[in-house]
Amino acid sequence: MMIAGDKPEALSIVASALARGLRPDPQVMPAEWAETHLILADGPKAGFKWDPAVTPYAVEILNCLSSTSPHTRVSVRKSAQVGLTEAMIAWLGTIIDTSPGKAMLVLPTISTAQDFNREKLGPTIEQTKPLNRKVRQASSRSSQSSTALSKRFAGGSLTLTGANSTADLRSKTIKYLACDEIDEWPLDLDGQGDPMKMADARQISFHATGDYKKFEASTPTIKGQSRIDAAFEEGDQRYWNCPCPHCGTYQRLVFGGPDEPHGLKFNKVWPYSTHYVCIECGGVIENYHKQQMLLAGDWIPERPEPGRHPSFHIDAISSNLTTWDKMVEEFIKAKDDPGQLKAFVNLWLGQVWEERGDAPEWGRLFSRREDYAPRTIPPGGLVFTCGCDVQGDGAYYEVVAWGRDKQSWSIDQGFLVGNTADPHDQVWRDLDDLYQRRYPDVYGNYWPVDALAIDSGFNTNQVYMWAAKHPRARAIKGDDGWQKAAISASPSKVDINWQGKRRKYGAQLWHVGTWGLKSELYANLRKEGARDGQEYDPPGYCHFAMFHDEAYFKQLTAEYLKETVIKGRKVKVWHASAPNHLHDCRIYNMAMAAHLGVDRMNVAEWDQVQHDRAEPPKAPQGDLIDRMGPKQQAEARAKVAKPTAKPSAKRPSNDNAGWLGSRKGGWLNK
How far is CA 592 from CA 262, 413, 475, 531, in A? Predict the structure, then answer.
């Protein structure tokens, strides 16, 4: 028998083979792995490999997360749709393929985690060969198989969960932690604390070795409350700098402003002729220069002191995935609407929105009152809402007419006296009268309110009972928080039968996001119009009449933002400095306007509303039509006469009618 010792060259071959087998695999940088293997699941490059030329700024972010990097935390403050979700998936893919261990991806909710798996992660695993080979397939027969929210592979696992899940955030030890859209996470989880602190605690056992990684990314929201903004400020604050194609000066691309000589410049009307002006040479940079500029870009930290972790900011102006013209188009559409402008700042600029919480001067509003009669609809008012704030001794109310560009006119307001705890008290009959009240317009028509919001925070059961009897009324509850919608997409059923089950046709409760509406109200109250010497009244402008007294304006402006520490975090919350009932009534009116779609209507839809409301209605209106089927609705509306030269003053025939139209097919839901 021949053994290796008989052949020295054979011994050398065997030794080399053993050495290669024992030698660890060379570490692959995450960006290199993604370029070689990752197949994109959606977007314009779906089905193709990840290309660093499309998002060159993602390379350094990914490589800071490599196993050879000394960093344990990476933060990214970003605008929407800049390709960093794919970068997060690339990092998780690198872990599965080259550095297996226990990993967790935390999204805002369990529901968003399920959507993320269905639309992005699952298809990526299926199409990317190394991941398809290593992630175990789903199987009902094996406890070691993968599921929608748990991906299992040799040496580790990836758990997907929501920041609203205490079970996953408290129960697992995690080496790799990915946190997405952290500004949408709750501040407190069921009274048990901050979900971010819970997630961070999953990595405590790795602190001594330093062998752990955390990647957090998000679009920012409100200044002072934004998690990602705080994380970015704690880091070394890296910005993507690009060279000017004319002089070569590296600079951070900024949106700029009308008073700044550099930055993005454009016309206010189409064609926007958008271009960038260099901060150094003043050279004009066109959008077609951008791709080569980004390829030559580099991350430059503004706070490179020791101890600061890598934190990055990237926004749409430095993205190949959109154009400067499209960015300007979105700005033009948003600039006059506080809510839309806030979204633009967050989603396109990747910056926090600073809520201005100081109350407008009530005296200035009082001095610019206009001369229109109470309980009449001025020209321009086309949609009508009412907000009621119920107290123990009565109910405050305000009626508002809404027009194009969300301009508003306060046409009626007051206080109905009575004991609201007693459902048989006169105050509830006075509310019936308010609900039925008709307001004359300039065409000689009389209109009731299209929707009435009544706050359920006081004498709740009586409010529920009253609202359930009035089809155009909405029992509402104000919710705190900056991420709440103006009004919930659907109501919750609140009536319980004797079996403890919710009644199908009982009272319904609509949730109103008051904080954002308060900020929007104050932004609109600060606007200057024709009475202030401007050429026109801007979108969102609020009109008031001479019948509004000082007390009205003091209540309207009675709230302010105050910074408060809640569970160790500084949060801006609304406080009242004086009675604020009419302030609340206006907020409820704004919620009803959103409910009716006033903020979503385009020019053609407003034209249709004006056409329809400029003539006496001769067909069943509002809620009566709502009870008909689609065919009967169309037939009823077809009977409405065409406009006449002199419309006669004729009241709607149905006393319970508003002018809501079909809730499924009418203009309100377009």
Answer: 42, 16, 11, 27
Q: Cβ–Cβ contacts within 10 Å for residue 552, how many? A: 19
Taking alpha carbons only, the member of 75, 65, 36 closest to residue 52 is 36
Position 626: which residue type?
D
Query: Which residue(s) pair with 285 in the sheet?
Result: 276
Exposed/middle/buried for 557, CB within 10 Å: 0-12, 13-18, 19+?
A: buried
Q: What is the pLDDT of residues 208-226, one digit of tens each?
A: 999 999 999 999 998 888 9
Whether the Cβ atoms of residue 214 and residue 262 lie closer than 8 Å to each other: no
Half-sphere exposure of 216 (CA within 13 A, CB side): 26
Please state the rounded mean pLDDT for residues 274-282.
96
Residues 6+ apart with CB under 8 A from 115: none
CATH architecture of the domain 362-612 equals 2-Layer Sandwich (3.30)
Which residue matches tokens 């050279």? 283
Residue 556 DSSP SS3: helix
Residue 523's CB is within 10 A of a number of other CB atoms, namely 19
Predicted local confidence at residue 168, as pLDDT: 81
Provide the whole-model pTM: 0.74
Mean pLDDT over residues 641-663, rounded?
A: 37
**pLDDT at residue 41, as a whole number:** 92
Q: Indicate the burial class of 648 (C-beta count within 10 angstroms; 0-12, 13-18, 19 or more).
A: exposed
Q: What is the pLDDT of residue 8?
A: 56
The answer for residues whose C-beta is within 8 angstroms of residue 513's C-beta and 6 or more apart is 479, 481, 483, 484, 485, 486, 487
User: Residue 102 is encoded by which pair of tokens?
Assistant: 């226990």
CATH class of the domain whose range is 27-241+295-320: alpha beta
Give residue 80's pLDDT: 96
Residue 333 near residue 272 (C-beta atoms within 8 A): no
Residues in the chain: 670
Which structure tokens are listed for 230? 């705080």
CB-based contact 452:470 (threshold 8 Å): yes
Task: Please list, residue by residue across 289-325, b when 16 or more beta carbons sit within 10 angstroms of its beta carbon and e when fewer do.
Answer: bbeebbeebebeeeeeeeeeebbbbbbbbbbbebebb
> In the structure, what pLDDT confidence band is assigned to residue 553 with cuts at 50, 70 and 90?
very high
Question: Residue 253 has which token pair?
Answer: 């691309």
Question: Taking a C-beta distance cutoff of 8 angstroms, is the pair 203, 63 a contact?
Answer: no
Token reading at 551: 């007390």
Domain with CATH 3.30.420 in the chain: 362-612
Give the span between the Cα atoms of 664 and 666, in whole angstroms: 6
Q: Give the closest residue to 38 by CA, choosing from 158, 130, 128.
A: 128
* Start and end residues for every CATH 3.40.50.300 domain found in the chain: 27-241+295-320
Peptide bond into 423 cis (omega under 30): no
* pLDDT tens for each residue of 52-96: 999 999 999 999 999 999 999 999 999 999 999 999 999 999 999
The span from the CA of 667 to the CA of 397, in Å, is: 27
| DSSP per-residue letters across 198-243 | HHHHTTGGGTTTT--EEEEEE---BTTT-HHHHHHHHTT-EEEEEE
In this structure, what DSSP letter does residue 529 have?
-
Count CB atoms within 10 A of the CB of residue 358: 10
- Is pLDDT of 628 > 70? no
Residue listed under structure tokens 């007390």 = 551
Contacts of 191 (CB under 8 A, 6+ apart): none
